[in-house]
Amino acid sequence: MAETKLTAEKRTSFGKGAARSIRRASKIPAVVYGHGEAPLHITLPGHETLLALRASNALLDITVDGESHLTLPKDVQRDPIKGFIEHVDLLVVRRGEKVVVDVPVHVEGEAGPETVVQQELTTLSVEAEATHIPASLTVSVEGLEAGSQVAASDVQLPSGVTLAGDAEQLVVVVSAAATAAQVEAELEAAEAEAGIVREESDSEAGETPAEEKSESDES
Predict the structure, then answer these.
(1) How far is CA 114 from its chain centroid?
(2) CATH class of 3-93
(3) Which parts of the sequence belong to the Large ribosomal subunit protein bL25 L25 domain (predicted)?
């Protein structure tokens, strides 16, 4: 994964008020920590950081007062309503060092006819060198039939990357698509549980439609 270079400033003011002032200036409060070093409180450029953090496990090379810090985002706090970044925790890493991270899983391909593909896991925990973390992992379901399963151990990993989580975890399950009768039965069961009573149509109730009645009367 390519590194993103950012220039940050040391932060000397703390608290909610200081953080709000930083964000009003279109910047982001952050802290750099790890490898036994004292936490370094910094202010990151807002727009550049936002773009960099669109990628999962973005590798950030941050320069503070001429000193470089290679980091990975450990925690990105966002406003729950507006979505802007409120604060970032950055973990110091070393080149060649192996780290455990969660990598996004993408499903591609078309499974067999009359099947439904259920993705059970959207990320997989893997161990990789900090400078060689895969951007994503791909699982192909091309041609898979109903009853097929893809476990974590079945996912192809790039060279140098190993699985860190449970190898037996299911990532993808392919099942048979429900028939129209099954869908109708499930709908009726759900309606009954909710206390919903369907009104019968004239044809369902065995009644003769109004037009047919009038024609019959005329004859």
Answers:
(1) 27
(2) mainly beta
(3) 6-90
Structure tokens at 184: 């109708």
pLDDT at site 211: 53
Rounded-to-integer distance, Cα 7 and Cα 176, Å: 53
Pairing of β 85-92 and β 149-151:
unpaired
User: Where in the chain are the domains?
Assistant: 3-93, 99-174, 180-218
CA distance 40 to 30: 8
Q: Which residue has the tokens 């041609």?
A: 143
Give one DSSP letter per residue of 120-131, joined into a string. --SEEEEEEETT
Regions of the chain with pLDDT less than 50: 219
pTM for this predicted structure: 0.75
CATH number of the domain located at residue range(s) 99-174 in this protein: 2.170.120.20
DSSP characters over the chain? --EEEEEEEE----SHHHHHHHHHTTEEEEEEEETTEEEEEEEEEHHHHHHHTTSTT-EEEEEETTEEEEEEEEEEEE-TTT--EEEEEEEE--TT-EEEEEEEEEEES---TTEEEEE--SEEEEEEETT---S-EEEE-TTPPTT-EEEGGGS---TT-EE-S-TT-EEEEEEEPPPHHHHHHHHHHHHHHHT--PPPPHHHHTPPPHHHHHHHHH-
Cβ atoms within 10 Å, residue 173: 17
Cβ atoms of 136 and 167 closer than 8 Å = no
